[in-house]
Design a protein that fits this description.
The protein is of the alpha+beta class and about 140 residues long. About 25% of the residues lie in helices and about 20% in strands. The chain contains four helices and five strands, in the order H-E-E-H-E-H-E-E-H. It is globular and about 35 Å long.
Length: about 140
């Protein structure tokens, strides 16, 4: 891994309660810019003892949309934060009956998590299970 990654084999001592981090992700989702899908997503992560949030930002060229998870990771990287230990994702417009696949990160976000937060615990709003990156992307691309 390169010098600019947020990963480390050691875990930082600062951890947040699952529900507290999910609440921050839900709060962030309120600020999402999604005029096309109307599907608001927020992410909150702990990196180096600090909390960073992100939202999905849609633009007219839909393929260039920025997901909440990548937005939060980019913010943490931009601030020079330490290793990512926890990530929470909230899709506040998903109905309670929505299947897990409509709540979990997309493929691009899973790869970003693999590269920048390989040892993080991942919380998904509406799913009781805690995930690892390997749970979400078992055979991640590596260089």
């Amino acid at each position: 891994m390169g010098e600019n990654t947020l990963s480390s084999n050691r875990q930082e001592a600062y951890l947040m309660e699952r529900e507290q981090l999910l609440a921050l992700a839900r709060e962030a989702a309120q600020k999402a810019h999604c005029p096309y899908s109307h599907f608001r997503v927020g992410a909150a992560l702990v990196a180096g003892g600090e909390v960073f949030t992100g939202v999905n930002i849609e633009i007219s060229s839909y393929g260039l949309t920025l997901c909440a998870e990548r937005s939060a990771l980019a913010t943490a990287v931009s601030h020079g934060a330490g290793p990512v230990t926890q990530v929470a994702v909230a899709c506040i417009d998903a109905p309670p009956s929505a299947p897990p696949g409509s709540r979990t990160p997309c493929g691009a976000c899973r790869q970003w998590l693999s590269d920048l937060a390989p040892h993080a615990t991942i919380f998904i709003d509406g799913i009781e299970q805690n995930f690892t990156v390997s749970d979400l992307l078992p055979h991640a691309f590596e260089l």
